[in-house]
Amino acid sequence: MFWSTLLSPAERLPALPLEDWFAALQLRTGEVAPLELAMLGGRLAATPGLAFLAGYQGALRALWPSAPASLGALCVTENRSTRPADMQTRLTDLQLSGRKDFVTAAEAADWLLVAARDEASGASPHLSLCVVYSGAPGVRIEPLPSLPLMPDIGHARLHLEQATCELLAGDGWDAYVKPFRSIEDLHVLAAVTAWLYGVGLDSGWPQGLLLRLSSLLAGCAEQARQCPRAAASHVLLGGLFAQFDGLQTELAAAFAAGPADWVALWQRDHNLLNIAAGARAKRLDKALQALQLAAH
User: Fold this and answer.
1) Contacts from 75-78 at CB under 8 Å and sequence distance 24+?
2) Exposure pattern of 259-281 as b/e (b: 16+ CB <10 Å)?
3) How far apart are the C-alpha atoms of 116 and 129, rounded to whole Å?
4) Contacts by 278-282, CB closer than 8 A, 24 or more apart
5) What pLDDT digit, counting tens, does each position of 102-156 carry?
6) What distance in Å separates the CA atoms of residue 136 and residue 164, rounded to the nearest whole number?
7) How many CA atoms lie within 13 A of 196 on its CB side?
8) pTM, entire model
9) Could you report the per-residue pLDDT of 262-291, keeping only the tens digit for each?
């Protein structure tokens, strides 16, 4: 039933404020698995940015299955770094103090997952992942200027001053921050591919291209079953991105032959999948070496 819904003609959701759009998406989809949320959200999105948002929210729910139904965000980056040793945000007695510099959709988020250091003085850096709620005492969100890429998806700086939090079980780095990189890559790829499929269906793209996009979606569904920390998983994810990259010439030709509005949106936002390409390439290289598949 899911695949029939995904691949069939559908009326897109109108572009709304992010929290309203996500609530409308949930009303349309009902309770679905994280990757299904990403794909259906991408399919119903009016822009690549909203498709990204659906993928991001699906990834958060794959990371934290107990996440609330409302819009959320992951807060890791400080001074352009995600390394634990570079972080200054601290967890002390279930209170958070510090700052996170670049939080996707933070202005619209109801809940925020915050990576914070909690090691004893002199010990090696250690992270925990905590939950705080927008509007709670000690939680302040500072909007940042919109970016040329996906201007409909805002970013903000998070300020924390002795904000009471909830602590998630497990190591903050190994169980959450590190695997999220690959989880997010997969869910955003699936959402954007679903958006492209919908554009192609509405624009009368060649059937062969639509079939290749649907095949890529099927590959994403299989990848979602894999452990995101496993070397083989990184190789398979690399294969999905290689498959997507191989469609670019064909996609460009299809867009050029179709409505100008779609062309403008894609020209503006098509690089959204390249944001994390460098880190993804490093993970793939390490995985290939671990599986003795690296070129000699």
Assistant:
1) 75/100, 75/103, 75/106, 75/112, 75/113, 75/114, 75/115, 75/158, 76/100, 76/115, 76/177, 77/101, 77/102, 77/103
2) eeebbebbebbbebbeeeeeebe
3) 6
4) 279/181, 280/181, 280/182, 280/185, 280/237, 280/238, 280/241
5) 999 999 999 999 999 999 888 999 999 999 999 999 999 999 999 999 999 999 9
6) 8
7) 29
8) 0.96
9) 999 999 999 999 988 999 999 999 999 999
Signed CA dihedral, 229, 175, 87, 50: sign only: positive
Burial class (CB in 10 A: 0-12, 13-18, 19+), 123: exposed
Taking alpha carbons only, the member of 145, 134, 261, 241 closest to residue 184 is 241
Cα 160 to Cα 156: distance, rounded to the nearest angstrom: 13
Q: Hey, CA dihedral for 33, 37, 40, 43, is it positive or negative?
A: negative
Q: What angle do CA 182, 178, 38 make, to 5 degrees?
A: 35
Closest CA to 248 of 193, 181, 285, 201: 193
Q: Write out the two tokens for 193.
A: 């591919």
CB 134, CB 178: distance < 8 Å:
no
Nearest to 36 by CA among 6, 56, 70: 6
Q: How many CA atoms lie within 13 A of 185 on its CB side?
A: 30
Give 244: exposed, middle or buried? Use CB within 10 Å, 0-12, 13-18, 19+: buried
